[in-house]
Write a structure and sequence with these properties.
two-stranded antiparallel sheet; 9 helices; Rossmann fold; seven-stranded mixed β-sheet
Length: 317
């Protein structure tokens, strides 16, 4: 082993690793504000979200994020006082949530949105997904990258960066485009409006990308806190397949669905189609672009095969 490799191997981890049991103990004395019907509404397709998962994992996480947000607000106030600034515009606390397709990051984002809004210091929480910043299908076709939808180059990264920058600057009203999974495209002239909430959650597979060539700033540079939802690749592959088969029996049957042709596939045909999407698009994107950003996260949620979080890795201060 070379000296360089030896030094790299000896580098201490930037994370504190917390087993589920120890993490759950941080929620002692905290009562869940969500009902069983809330959990059913927030759960993703094929995911297991029960009272234990909520209490053990998400309650302590929501409190931690609440404390970070309070500290950030106080730091902004102190900085303004130090600089003699009179500008009292609210600076929202921005949380980024990343992870593979089918890993469950959307469920994480929804649960945290509802929990964070229950804390008295952060009653207004908005959730924005980066799907709305995908280039329209027509533009993807024009650029010859329709088959790479979801890869970093398929997003209007400048528009996404401008959106988050305006939020951080305290602009009173900021708009994000809306994406429809039914038509599999950006919806013209529809927007999600963000009006200076206490917290904004930005959820998307590639939100932790670093700055690229010719781009000195990335969206992830504007996050106050970031979460990466992690799992074994084999488990994510299985979850993707199971979700596709469930959608074939539900959302794909809608006459207006972009994926309507898939509803008529046999079981074998559906499995082969789903595996083709995974092998050709989602797995390469995970390996090349998504997983390499994991080490940039403030916190990592490590899931096991049953979708339950078994370990939390929190970046050391």
């Amino acid at each position: 082993m070379t000296e360089k490799h030896s030094q790299t191997a000896e580098l201490p981890s930037p994370y504190t690793e917390i087993p589920r049991q120890k993490w759950a103990e941080l929620a002692q004395g905290m009562r869940s504000p969500l009902t069983d019907s809330d959990l059913a509404r927030l759960s993703g397709i094929g995911e297991r979200l029960d009272t234990n998962e909520l209490t053990d994992v998400y309650l302590p996480l929501s409190r931690l994020l609440n404390q970070y947000a309070i500290a950030a607000q106080e730091m902004h106030r102190r900085t303004r006082n130090f600089l003699g600034q009179q500008d009292e515009r609210k600076t929202p606390f921005v949380i980024g949530i990343a992870g593979s397709v089918a890993v469950g990051k959307s469920t994480v984002a929804r649960v945290l949105r509802d929990l964070l809004a229950r804390w008295p210091e952060t009653p207004r929480v908005d959730l924005v997904t980066t799907d709305g910043f995908l280039l329209p299908n027509a533009e993807l076709e024009k650029r010859g990258i329709a088959a790479r939808k979801g890869f970093p180059e398929s997003y209007d990264r400048r528009a996404l960066l401008r959106f988050v920058a305006q939020i951080k600057a305290g602009v009173p009203t900021v708009k994000a485009p809306v994406y429809s999974h039914l038509i599999y495209d950006v919806v013209p002239d529809q927007f999600t409006v963000v009006k200076q909430p206490d917290i904004v959650i930005i959820e998307g597979i590639n939100v932790l990308q670093p700055p690229g060539a010719g781009r000195p700033l990335a969206v992830s540079d504007l996050f106050d806190f970031s979460i990466y939802v992690d799992a074994r690749q084999s488990d994510i592959r299985r979850w993707f397949l199971e979700r596709f088969l469930r959608l074939r029996e539900s959302a794909f049957t809608d006459p207006d669905s972009y994926f309507k042709p898939f509803a008529a596939l046999s079981d074998d045909e559906a499995i082969q189609t789903a595996l083709g999407f995974w092998d050709d698009i989602n797995q390469p994107n995970l390996i090349q672009n998504i997983r390499p950003t994991r080490a940039r996260a403030s916190l990592i949620l490590r899931k096991e095969a049953d979708h339950r979080v078994q370990k939390v890795l929190l970046r050391k201060l």
